[in-house]
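Schema walk-through. Below, the input block comes first and the output block second. Nothing else is stored per chain. Lengths vary across the set, and this one has 153 residues.
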Amino acid sequence: MDENKPSSSEVVVRKAALRRIEDRLKTRLRAYFRPGERLSLTVEDEKDFVYAQMSLQSPDGEFRLDLEAAMIVQDQDRRFVSATTSRARVLGAIEFLSEKLEEYFRSQRRIRFHIDWRLYPFKAATVRFRGRLRHPELEERADEWLDTNEEST
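--- output ---
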């Protein structure tokens, strides 16, 4: 087994490490956060890809920004894959997302992201990225309204 590749039972980035990364991002970007906003990270590591999601959510649930990045093995140069570990690729995806979040803040929250996956060059890698601004409370009300109207027909 390649010593640079995690075994299937190995956790690539532990929850405690993710919380530390979240804390560093919150500290670095604190001037941009509105009162009560929460930042969270989730990651996945599979045989053919790594995935990271960064979410920014208002305390009342009215607003949620989901940014997602994936590094898929087929998108990468073979030398890049053989020279990096899954952990390094996950951390690279998180770094890419943190740059996108900072761009969002610096634009006064005016940047709009695309909901389809698009390829971006990032350092020596290729990252698939998408982002979505959501309003969960409004979505829930719309679903309720649609369900009510569907029942009355």
